[in-house]
Amino acid sequence: MSTDETIPMTKVLVVDDSRMVRATIIKHIRNRFDVRDEADGEAGWEALLVDPAIQLVLTDIGMPRLDGFGLLARIRGSRVQRIQDLPVVIISGDEDDEARERALKLGASDFVAKGAGSAELLARLESLIRLANTRRELNESRAALAVQSPVDPVSGLATPSYLNHHAEQEMALARRNQGAISVMVIDIDHYEQLTEWHGTHVAELITRKLSKILSTKVRREDTVSQLSSSRFAVLSPSTDLIGCCAFALRLQHAMEKLVMTYRDERIRISVTIGVASASVDGMQTVGNLIETAAKRVQEGVNAGGNRVIGDKGEVDQAMVDSQLKQVMSIDHALLQIRIGAADEVAERLPEVVATLLPLLELVESRLHCGLPLEHLKQYGKGPAVGSDGAEGGQSSA
Q1: CA of 29: how far to CAs of 24, 65, 71, 117, in Å?
Q2: Using one digit for the tens of pLDDT, what is the confidence trace for 289-325?
């Protein structure tokens, strides 16, 4: 006995504040497409969030509550991939060239005149849906390959699946050795506005710039992965919360200094970073740590962005410095050197030497290699000050 399967029609969302325009479009395409219609951009956006069957959006520009530009910017800036990739066709009326250029910059897929006939409209929509399906299949193939590969072919960073796999190994090692492990989640501030103001091309360039900065700033043992168009995660084994916060502040300040120029317009960028560490947040799964860090990012975004958030709220340099000065940690000193802050370690070199002195004495007692222990003991007590006011061993210029 055979069974019949109904092939569902592709669903199109039509957004226009004119009931007559919506009715005309529906009349043209209802035999080939399943249609949902809404009267303004805000209602259209809500429909996209709750209806995953929608595969294409037809939208007017001038509408109440949220216009077509705003709806398009939300779609292209969405962190939900199925929404971000939707073809968006502008229902074109009497808009001027400037309006069309703005829509293209925001990522519009095509334009259709309000008076277009059935044949033209159907051809445009079917062509865009075929293209979108092809892209989706390519992305799915790439995702399948990425699961098997530790490196994303586009960003050059670790894939999220590899990050999770590697992170659980590092977490198990930290549990066995009672070691430290920390996570940062980094968000580009106002990413949706950047997309709306400058277009998807510029927003993607900013994402790539942050990706490059991260790949050059982290240690070899750290793992960086891109979680979405505007979000990254960094796994830092053998690093406690203070060390991770120190690195996060350095990254935040580096992004503050970055200015990108596009069409003679200077674009300033900032990031909000959430930090979580097993030492204070518990030896949970790495997924829990990333979720905790992500919640702290949201706290920072709600407070205005461009800040680092730890377990006790916003983190600044004074807080990090005060924590570091409480106990001189060799791990912290090594971390500072690895991230290019050797001068900061040099300022506290007497404390480093004093911390290492018992180990150096053991080394000398076993190897008899002639370490200048007495000199190191004196240096560990603090640099002597000469009669000229300069530190011992230094001459004033």
Answers
A1: 9, 27, 22, 10
A2: 899 999 999 999 999 999 999 998 999 888 887 776 6
Look at residue 140 and tell me whether its pLDDT is greater than 50.
yes
Residue 214 banded pLDDT, cuts 50, 70, 90: confident
Contacts of 382 (CB under 8 A, 6+ apart): 350
- What is the spatial distance between Cα 333 and Cα 354, in angstroms, rounded to a whole number? 13
pLDDT tens figures, 333-343:
776 676 666 77
Judged on CB neighbours under 10 Å (0-12, 13-18, 19+), 348 is: middle
Examine the pLDDT at 395 and tell me if it is beyond 50.
no
- Tell me the per-residue pLDDT of 100-118, one tens digit each, with 9 for 90 and over: 888 888 899 988 887 777 8
CA 115/CA 13 separation, integer angstroms? 18
State pTM to two decimals.
0.53
Dihedral pair phi/psi, residue 73, rounded to 5°: -65, -40
* Partners of 262 in the β-ladder: 265
Beta bridge partners of 236: 182
Name the pairing type of β-strands 223-228 and 265-268.
unpaired
- The residues, any chain, with a CB within 8 Å of residue 262's CB and separated by 6 or more, are 198, 202, 205
Give the domains, in start order, of the chain with CATH numbers: 11-142 (3.40.50.2300), 151-344 (3.30.70.270), 348-397 (no CATH)
Give dist(CA 274, CA 218) in Å, integer.
16
Tokens standing for residue 380: 């560990």
